[in-house]
Write a structure and sequence with these properties.
447 residues, alpha/beta, five-stranded mixed β-sheet, 16 helices, 15% strand, globular, binds 1,4-dihydronicotinamide adenine dinucleotide, binds 2-oxoglutaric acid, Glu/Leu/Phe/Val/Trp_DH_dimer, oxidoreductase, Glutamate dehydrogenase
């Protein structure tokens, strides 16, 4: 081994001292991979780990746009092309004021391992801008998306880099960006996923991350001879991932007791109904309103500034953003009897929270495994675009089920401790994701 774990982490920290989220993701991954790498001499060759933590390319650019009042704004746009050893860069675009290189590098790094886990030939990337779509008119969002694409279009393509949505980027934004891409490149290809059904999108892509998360939870529960029906679920967020996690859970007779947004949390101890879910969909996706309106409409409790983790639940599904569940939240969940935490968001648990839930030996799945259903169906959208075909809902759902079950199997196969029943899903996901990428990098030489 050329460097120890601590030396490797120190060198990552020293290179980019102002990137705490990236350091956190690298520490989580490398600390679980290290004992495995120490046993496999091959993975100590060719500067593999140093290359693995360094993006292949980062693109940063100016995004000037004009608001409805004629005022010029300048945002910063990025694409982190992290690793293309097993396929074209693939991963979402995030529009949120908190976007910076630290956040995008952590997301791109996680995406490499996640995409490898999907069983599909997808490399990893992530991008976005520090633009806040909240409160902007439809026309302002369109102008911003078009301005963003006038630079990004030259760096992406169906065989190079295929973006999709993430926080602040849904069907509307993908449509505007794809339209501008098509105009500038004068080509109709599957360069985006999450497209509308009328122009090459896959059925079930909007639902895929949330549905896949519930399929993964079902697989985890099965190892304990439990079912999801009747379990109390605390969900955070009310965006794409939270919405379809809640939808599948309600359909399967689980009780979804919380939903939230950055203003606060709505608690419904009896479980949200489909009627309340429909209202939320219209509220968030069409009127783009605040979740407190859901509480008001159905006479439910809304707690401003609060998180869902204080309420009693069996299963916690953080589906909003990074580091939204800290060590105190983890302790509260455990004290209240929560026995399963599965991540819909990327890196929603702090490192300390992860250590706490792992010490308690409850079921705990990292996002790179449990939320991989979204990018998996994106991979299926790319396959359909290449074939110029559309698969049916049953076909896509069936493939999504199979992929989530393969990911679960891979986590158990690398994460099951020698003696006993406990599966360390973090170690399992990290090793299973790493092996495929590492083997491809070694086979292709030092590039
Ligand atoms: N959209 C997708 O297919 C996938 C998304 N993810 C991850 O899932 C998470 C949610 O993404 P989407 O649902 O797509 O985004 P979205 O923009 O549709 O929804 C984000 C949700 O998080 C909430 N939120 C954001 N910041 C918050 C904060 N500081 N406190 C409380 N709530 C906050 C928002 O109010 C909103 O409800 C992100 O971590 C994303 O990276 C992971 C896999 C795939
Ligand atoms: O579908 C995709 O390409 C991106 C999904 C994504 O951004 C994620 O998995 O975090």
């Amino acid at each position: 081994m050329q460097m120890s774990l601590e030396q490797t982490l120190d060198s990552v920290r020293e290179k980019d001292p102002h990137q705490p989220e990236f350091h956190q993701a690298v520490e989580e991954v490398l600390s679980t991979l290290w004992p495995f790498i120490e046993k496999c001499k091959d993975y100590q060759k060719q500067g593999l780990i140093e290359r693995f933590v360094e993006p292949e390319r980062i693109i940063q650019f100016r995004v000037p746009w004009v608001d409805d009042a004629g005022k010029v704004h300048v945002n910063r746009g990025y694409r982190v092309q992290m690793n293309s050893a097993i396929g074209p860069y693939k991963g979402g675009l995030r529009f949120h004021p908190s976007v910076n290189l630290s956040v995008l590098k952590f997301l791109a790094f996680e995406q490499v391992l996640k995409n490898s886990l999907t069983t599909l030939p997808l490399g990893g990337g992530k991008g976005g801008a520090d633009f806040d779509p909240k409160g902007k008119s439809d026309n302002e969002v369109m102008r911003f998306c078009q301005a963003f694409m006038t630079e990004l279009y030259r760096h992406i393509g169906p065989e190079t880099d295929v973006p999709a949505g993430d926080i602040g980027v849904g069907g509307r934004e993908v449509g505007y960006m794809y339209g501008m891409y098509r105009k500038l490149r004068n080509e109709v290809t599957g360069t985006f996923t999450g497209k509308g059904l009328s122009y090459g999108g896959s059925i079930l892509r909007p639902e895929a991350t949330g549905y896949g998360l519930i399929y993964f939870v079902e697989a985890m529960l099965k190892t304990k001879n439990k079912e999801i029906a009747g379990q109390k679920l605390a969900i955070s967020g009310s965006g794409n991932v939270a919405q379809f996690t809640a939808h599948k859970a309600i359909e399967l007779d689980a009780l979804v007791v919380t939903m939230s947004d950055s203003d606060g949390v709505v608690h419904n101890p009896d479980g949200f109904t489909m009627e309340q879910w429909q209202y939320l969909m219209e509220l968030k996706n069409e009127r783009r309103g605040r979740i407190s309106e859901l509480a008001k409409k159905f006479n439910l409790k809304f707690e401003e500034g609060a998180k869902p983790w204080q309420y009693r639940c069996d299963i916690a599904l953080p589906c909003a953003t990074q580091n939204e569940l800290d060590v105190d939240d983890a302790k509260t969940l455990l004290d209240n009897g929560c026995f399963c935490i599965s991540e819909g968001a990327n890196m929603p648990l702090t490192l300390e929270a992860i250590h706490t839930v792992q010490e308690a030996r409850i079921l705990y799945a990292p996002g790179k495994a449990s939320n991989a259903g979204g990018v998996a169906v994106s991979g299926l959208e790319m396959a359909q675009n290449s074939m110029r075909q559309h698969w049916s809902e049953a076909e896509v759902d069936n493939r999504l089920h199979t992929i989530m079950s393969c990911i679960h199997k891979a986590c158990v196969s690398y994460g099951k401790e020698d003696e006993g029943e406990y599966t360390d899903y973090v170690t399992g996901a990290n090793i299973a994701g790493f092996v495929k990428v590492a083997d491809a990098m070694l086979a292709q030489g030092v590039v």
